[in-house]
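Checklist before submission:
- one chain only
- standard amino acids only
- sequence pasted in full

Submission:
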Amino acid sequence: MRTRLLLGLSLLSTGLLAGAFGYGAANLVPTFNSVPIDMRLDFHAELMKMNGITMQGAMAISALSALTLAALTRERARLLTAAAGFLIVVSFLITRFGNVPINGRIKEWAATTPPPDHVVLLSRWELFNDLRTCTAMAAFVILISVALRQARRGGR
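Returned file contents:
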């Protein structure tokens, strides 16, 4: 029973994380790229204020629940949930060391003006965003496969 609840929490939090990243990649980034740069920078800076709290929370709950689940399960489920936890940690590391420093620069640019190489830095932010989206989605798919496998085996 405890592992089923933990799997549910892992699925919920990782699904929300992957969905948020996926929505950003599919909708926000193309919108960012179609508006004037000053509008993008202002919106991006404001969005990051909220994302800093919600996304870090989702990453923490996702990683902790998946890694705890790995510690409580055996055999293939342990390997799969550990892999999902690892991918979520990778999403966090990409965010922390890739996106966050660029977000800080974007915040500065919104208050002043972007440097001549801003397009390169924004492209790098988008690459990091795509990478963390893929790792979060892969973690979610792995956790879905664990849940489906448990359902086939009668929830054992």
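Reviewer check: The helical segments are 2-34, 37-72, 75-111, 118-152.
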